[in-house]
């Protein structure tokens, strides 16, 4: 039995670097300590513009970065720079009085990366992303983000990996390993339960201990334990009554004592309210940092309400991070990462994470001999590389779908292309020019679809060989998506799909829909009208080239969904409690005069999030978790366990054979159905996954999975422990969460208490949780 209570441990273990950090802190004045635990500010109205002294004030070390830590030159402490994250390095592409450019790679968004189910590939992306961080003189990238995609409308779902914590945790760990292999840091975010944007600075999420441990903390636990991120970013929201950045039990009891996190915690930008409580909770660095926070901390130390020992510990953890940073090592960054080489990696990763949702009668791939492709939909010409807000990247270019197709040698219908290109540029020219903050608070809507006369559809169906229609969606921090005209298609989009399909089908020609979105959308009402659907997510700067790779068959699609596509929005169980209740009568003014509306959200669905709900309650989604088609077929054979009874761990092996006619890769998922005598259990839970290498037709590969005691355990609230119940466990190997192809069982003779935890973070209200 592993016990995660570390008796009497109040501070992190001391390494040599830690000792050095403490020695440096012991030489600091109170003012220096306070300067260090509060960031240097940000160039924003209302925020501190530095500490006012000029000493160590180097806000613009890397223009466009999100923040800087304070330098204390006489102690050898340099300023360090942190920048967003998570789909690449977010810095300004141009600088005043400087002819050089500083573009970064816009990588495929997290949702796409998760759909590759390929942790090695994600590490490779991380390595290249981290290289840009290092070569542009940044010390920490503010990512990856791994909140749970709890509801289909989550505005930042594109920045997160999955509705499932195992996928989220494994992907984040893979990303952290890749980025940090460069000697730069990551900040896994937003810790924790930041699963909506609406009222994100005020909302209190009421969550049961079990749902917290199994769903909302689990991914962070995996990432911390498997990849040692340098830093963690606390979230904006309250969790069971307290701001996460002020919650000792989250940041110290669980993160540090239970999981062994050794790094530094920073707030989200302007997150939380009480700087002194944040210090006490173990939230070491307050970002971006304000003069008020400095005053509050200084006053509290002086009047004895905040022990200097706590500030010393916070400061030591920051110094510890700084000592390991490229800034401290005086790394001579080049400002010249190999963007060309990275674009190749981005294109490859993008193609690997696209999901083929439908492909009737071999509509795809599109034969090289196809003459005229009719590309409809404004998004075919204005493809979306990634989401908005701080998760947006300043890339040099985005390859559109039509550019990608023509690069691949396809011929596009020129009349249609020209008409769309003219329309898109004219409409875009009409849009107001906004800076980042204007856009942040008042996002520009995407232009409407171009009106097309019926005759044209008919004429083009006669001359063109195939029609493509791209549906585009974008979202980002600050607000959630909407049901109408966003999750559901707009009337003009539905009309376009209907008109194109009618005209092309009348001539026996195929119609393909391409979904270019960061999150899920409605498909049931229109999918029968078209022959194939390719979900490209938001694939980064090489978008169109990667889509063309899949459409042409150069890459056989192997992505599978890490998020359920609900039949209709209302089918999702979280809808009852999203985005929660608001109390506008209690509104106050927040940052930039924005109204701060107190809000509450109660996660009444408990552990039944995503496929855990759909499978357990027999609700049929449009496309289930784990689903995705290929241009070939696979057979699953010969599932074996190394033992029929559980003895510390179980090894499962299964043979996967390519029985089709083209080479392909298969994502294989291992679910477990556990005995449910004492605790509720979802019908199935993902416990492991793997992906074959490229299998040639007829080729076979054996995949192996390891299942540990923690994997089969559930969180038992009364005893605050992870417990595996005695009984029979069914191992289910599936091509998706619904398509289970092989089953086998093992037994556990006696209940196992796998890990004992602290009884903390209790909900402050009674939660009427969903039960089977
Ligand atoms: C976002 C963070 C981001 C930070 C710095 C905040 O608004 O929530 O994810 O890292 O800004 O840009």
Keywords:
772 residues; alpha/beta; six-stranded mixed sheet; 21 helices; globular; disordered N terminus; binds beta-D-glucopyranose
- Strand content bin: 15-25%
Percent helix, as a range, is 25-40%
Outline type: globular
Low-confidence stretches: 1-13, 45-58
Structural class: alpha/beta
* Unique bound compounds: beta-D-glucopyranose
Number of strands: 32
What order do the strands of the largest sheet run in, or round the barrel if closed?
Answer: 2-3-6-7-9-12
What is the arithmetic mean of pLDDT? Answer: 94
What is the count of helical runs?
Answer: 21
The biggest sheet amounts to: 6 strands, mixed
Give a written overview of the molecule.
- The chain is an alpha/beta fold and 772 residues long.
- The protein is built from 21 helices and 32 strands.
- The chain has a 6-stranded mixed beta sheet. A 6-stranded mixed beta sheet has the order 13-18-17-16-14-15, with helices on both faces. Strands 11-10-8-22-19 form a 5-stranded mixed beta sheet, with no helix packed on it.
- Strand 28 and strand 29 form a beta hairpin.
- Helix 13 packs across helix 19.
- The longest helix has 17 residues.
- The two termini are 30 Å apart.
- The chain binds beta-D-glucopyranose (BGC).
């Amino acid at each position: 039995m592993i016990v995660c209570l570390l008796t009497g441990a109040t501070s992190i273990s001391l390494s040599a670097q830690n000792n050095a950090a403490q020695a440096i802190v012991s030489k600091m004045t109170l003012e220096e300590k306070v300067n260090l635990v509060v960031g240097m500010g940000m160039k924003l109205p209302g925020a501190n513009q530095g500490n006012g002294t000029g000493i160590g004030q180097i806000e613009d070390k890397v223009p466009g970065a999100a923040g800087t830590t304070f330098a204390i030159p006489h102690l050898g402490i340099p300023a360090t720079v942190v920048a967003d994250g998570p789909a690449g390095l977010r810095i300004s592409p141009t600088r005043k009085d400087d002819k050089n450019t500083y573009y970064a790679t816009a990588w495929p968004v997290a949702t796409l990366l998760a759909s590759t189910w390929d942790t090695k590939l994600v590490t490779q992306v991380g390595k290249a992303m981290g290289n840009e961080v290092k070569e542009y003189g940044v010390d920490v990238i503010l990512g990856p983000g791994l909140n749970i995609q709890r509801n289909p409308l989550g505005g930042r779902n594109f920045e997160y990996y999955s509705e499932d914590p195992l996928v989220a945790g494994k992907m984040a760990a893979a990303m952290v390993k890749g980025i940090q292999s460069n000697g730069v840091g990551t900040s896994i975010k937003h810790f924790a339960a930041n699963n909506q944007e609406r009222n994100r600075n005020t909302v209190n999420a009421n969550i049961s201990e079990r749902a917290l441990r199994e769903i909302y903390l689990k991914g962070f636990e995996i990432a911390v334990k498997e990849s040692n991120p340098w830093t963690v970013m606390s979230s904006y929201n309250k969790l069971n009554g307290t701001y996460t950045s002020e919650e000792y039990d989250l940041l110290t009891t669980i993160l540090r004592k239970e999981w062994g996190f050794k790094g530094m915690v920073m707030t989200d930008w302007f997150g939380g309210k009480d700087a002194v409580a944040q210090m006490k909770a173990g939230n070491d660095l307050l970002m971006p940092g304000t003069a008020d926070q400095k005053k509050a901390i200084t006053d509290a130390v002086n009047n004895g309400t905040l022990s200097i020992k706590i500030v010393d510990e916070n400061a030591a953890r920051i110094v510890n991070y700084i000592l390991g940073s490229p800034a401290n090592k005086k790394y001579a960054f080049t400002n010249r990462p190999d963007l060309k080489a990275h674009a190749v990696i981005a294109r490859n990763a993008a193609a690997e994470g696209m999901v083929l949702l439908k492909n009737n009668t071999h509509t795809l791939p599109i034969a090289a001999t196809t003459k005229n492709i009719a590309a409809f939909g404004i998004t075919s010409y204005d493809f979306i590389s990634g989401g908005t807000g701080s998760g947006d990247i300043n890339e040099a270019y985005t390859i559109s779908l039509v550019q990608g197709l023509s690069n691949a040698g396809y011929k596009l219908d020129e009349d249609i292309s020209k008409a769309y290109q003219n329309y898109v540029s004219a409409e875009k020219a009409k849009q107001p020019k906004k800076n980042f903050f204007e856009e942040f608070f008042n996002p520009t809507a995407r232009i409407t679809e171009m009106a097309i006369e019926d005759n044209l559809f008919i004429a083009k169906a006669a001359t063109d060989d195939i029609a493509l229609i791209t549906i585009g969606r974008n979202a980002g921090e600050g607000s959630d998506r909407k049901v109408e005209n966003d999750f559901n298609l707009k009337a003009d989009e539905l009309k376009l799909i209907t008109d194109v399909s009618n005209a092309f089908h009348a001539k026996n020609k195929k119609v393909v829909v391409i979904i270019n979105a960061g999150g899920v959308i409605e498909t049931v009402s229109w999918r029968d009208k078209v022959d194939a659907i390719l979900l490209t997510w938001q694939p980064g700067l090489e978008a169109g080239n990667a889509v063309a790779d899949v459409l042409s068959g150069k890459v056989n699609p192997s992505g599978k969904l890490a998020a359920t596509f609900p039949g209709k929005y209302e089918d999702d169980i979280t809808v009852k409690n999203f985005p929660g209740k608001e109390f506008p009568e209690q509104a106050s003014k927040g940052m930039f005069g924005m109204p701060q509306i107190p809000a509450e959200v109660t996660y009444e669905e408990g552990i039944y999030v995503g496929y855990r709900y759909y499978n357990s309650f027999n609700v049929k989604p449009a496309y289930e978790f784990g689903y995705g088609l290929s241009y070939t077929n696979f057979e699953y054979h010969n599932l074996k366990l190394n033992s029929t009874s559980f003895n510390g761990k179980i090894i499962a092996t299964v043979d996967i054979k390519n029985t089709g006619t083209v080479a392909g890769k298969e994502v294989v998922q291992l679910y477990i159905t556990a005995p449910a005598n004492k605790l509720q259990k979802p019908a199935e839970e993902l416990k492991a996954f793997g992906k074959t290498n490229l299998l040639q037709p007829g080729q076979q590969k054996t995949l192996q999975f390891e299942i540990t005691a923690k994997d089969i355990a559930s969180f038992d609230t009364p005893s605050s422990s992870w417990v595996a119940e005695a009984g029979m466990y069914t191992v289910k190997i599936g091509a998706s969460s619904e398509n289970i192809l092989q089953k086998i069982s093992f037994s556990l003779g006696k209940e196992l208490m796998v890990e004992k935890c602290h009884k903390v973070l209790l909900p402050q209200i009674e939660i009427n949780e969903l039960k089977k």
